[in-house]
Every structure is written in C-alpha cells, then in structure tokens.
Design brief:
It holds the Pfam family Epimerase. The chain is 39% helix and 21% strand. Helix 2 (53-60) crosses helix 4 and helix 4 packs parallel to helix 5. The longest helix is centred in the N-terminal third of the chain and has 22 residues, at 82-103. It has 302 residues and is an alpha/beta fold. The radius of gyration is 19 Å and the shape is globular. The protein folds into two domains: 2-166 and 203-227, NAD(P)-binding Rossmann-like Domain (Rossmann fold, 3-Layer(aba) Sandwich); 168-202 and 231-271 and 284-299, UDP-galactose 4-epimerase, domain 1 (Alpha-Beta Complex). The strands form four sheets. The chain has an eight-stranded mixed β-sheet with strand order 3-4-2-1-5-6-8-12, with helices on both faces. The model has no long low-confidence stretch (mean pLDDT 93).
Length: 302
C-alpha cells in the first residue's frame, strides 16, 4: 500500500492518477485546504489532517511506502504564517516519521526544494552547499535532517527529491511562471515581468516528476536527488520563448511589460543543474522540453 499525502494538490493528484494507472494500491489523503478534489480516476481522496496524531496513526496503518506531498508550498505564505508553516511542514513530518516507524513503514519519499541551496551557487549538484535564503527553504532543510537521521539509524529508507520549478497541466491548476505567461498570451494580454527578468530558473515537467516518484518506489532507490530538468532559463528568455511559440502555434505574440519589484531583487547566480544522478532514475526516458510543454498549453487551452 502506498500512502500519498497532499493527494488533492498539483503534484499529488497527478501522481495518484499515474500510480492508479499502474494498478498499484493507493491510499490518498488531503486536508482540502487548497483544492477540494474528492477523487482521481475513481481513487477516493480521504479528508485527514497531518497535524493530528490520531489521523496520522490511521493513515499509515498497513502502508509500505509514503509519498509525503502534504505541505505549504508557497514561499510567501511560509514567511507570513510562519507558525502554521512550522506545524504543517515540520511538526506533522515528525508525527509521520514516529507513526511510520511504529507501523512498520519501509520508505518515505519527500519533496524538498532548490530553496535549500546557497543562492550564490552557479552549478548545482547534490553536494552543493546548503544555505537557504528564506523560511520555506529552512523548513525543507530541517525536514531533510529529520528524515536522514532516521535513515542513518536504519529505521526508514529515505528518498529526497530537491525539486526545481515544476510546470505542466495537471488535474488541478497551479500558477507557475510558465502557466502564467501562457495564460497571458492565450488571452491576448501582455506578459508582465517583475524586476530585471535576469533571474534564472530550472524547469521540469509534471509528467517527468511523477515518473521519478514512481521509479523511487523501487527498493534499492534511496538518498538525495536533484529533481530538475536539462533546461535553465532567465525569466526574460522564458517570456520570449513563450512569445515565439505562441507566434508559431497561434499566429500571435504579446508585449512583454517590465515592472519594478516592491522588494529589492535578489541576484541569482544559478546557471546549470548537474543531472547525472537523476538520470539514473530516468534511465532512457526522454524528458519533455520546455518548448514542448508550452506547445501543450497552446494546443489544448482551458
């Protein structure tokens, strides 16, 4: 039995669909604080609360592997509501670890983030220095430490995916930067960039992310992986790519408007991601290119 927490969310709901299509036994749970998706392809999503130890005890019963996606994933919300973020992103993880050990769970798969890395880093590998620049990144780093401590004791196998920017159409919408730019072009509105547009981001498609989680279910897979793609863009270059793709697919582009940021812009030094380790999970799978992902938005707009 595989437990998926945060199953009504952007990655969780897509993962439930994928695992269901592989005919795997799934228990899907969510607290429905963001999306109220009651089922995915006939798999019910149960209302349970990770911050309540009694619920956690129930959800892990009879489970072999946990994919723990339930968390506050918005950076600004973690900063603004830091006490709630600690409770949901960290304390509930501790509850989950404790009850998992008692229930005989074999493995926990945990989504971390590039936010744990030093913002001064240029080429990122799994050995890059950790130095979070925001509270969200610190919560992810502390969560990693809790999990890795259990793996060191031999009580749990752990897989940690430090994710870059996930994009692509799923069961529920998420306002990623790519989706926002594509939505603007589809509605013939200008693409707005805040700041210089020189901030760099790595991107990976949602379908490739779900494939990685599926592969991580395998017994030998454990440890830390950077879950990112092979393409890194500045925000300005990304906007230009959306416009070029829109011109080719829809016959139009839109103006790119730059606005001043309300807070000072932090320079990003990131230029590339070392994907050598994650390729061992993807094996011969061809990752979806950012351009192909943009084309998919334009070919079936909603």
């Amino acid at each position: 039995m595989i437990l998926v927490t945060g199953a009504a969310g952007y990655i969780g709901s897509q993962l439930v669909r994928f695992l269901s299509n592989q005919h795997l036994a799934i228990r899907a749970i969510d607290n429905f604080s963001v999306h109220r998706l009651s089922q995915v392809d006939g798999v019910p999503i149960h209302s349970m609360d990770l911050t309540q130890p009694h619920d956690v005890k129930q959800m892990v019963s009879g489970v072999d592997t946990i994919i723990h996606l339930g968390a506050i994933s918005d950076v600004a919300q973690c900063e603004k509501n830091n006490k709630e973020a600690v409770q949901i992103n960290l304390l509930s993880l501790q509850y989950l670890i404790q009850e998992s050990i008692q229930a005989g769970v074999r493995k926990i798969i945990f989504p971390s983030s590039f936010a744990v890395y030093d913002p001064e880093a240029e080429v990122i590998t799994e050995q890059t220095k950790l130095n979070p620049s925001n509270f969200y990144g610190h919560l992810k780093k502390w969560g990693e430490e809790l999990l890795l401590a259990e793996q060191a004791k031999g009580t749990l196998d752990i897989v940690i995916f430090r994710q870059s920017n996930v994009y692509g159409r799923g069961q529920v919408s998420k306002q990623t930067v790519i989706e926002s730019f594509c939505h603007a072009l589809l509605h013939n509105r200008e693409i707005t960039i805040y700041g210089s547009g020189q901030q760099t981001r790595n991107f990976i498609h949602l379908d490739d992310v779900t494939w990685a989680y599926y592969q991580a279910l395998s017994t030998p897979v454990r440890g830390i992986y950077n879950l990112g793609g092979e393409e890194t863009y500045s925000i300005l270059d990304l906007a230009c790519l959306v416009n070029r793709t829109g011109k080719r697919c829809l016959g139009r582009s839109v103006p790119i408007l730059r606005k001043e940021r309300t807070i000072p812009e932090k320079k990003t030094h990131f230029t590339a991601l070392d994907t050598q380790k994650i390729k061992t999970l993807f094996q011969n799978r061809q990752l979806k290119s950012v351009q192909a992902g943009i084309e998919a938005y334009f070919s079936s707009p909603v």
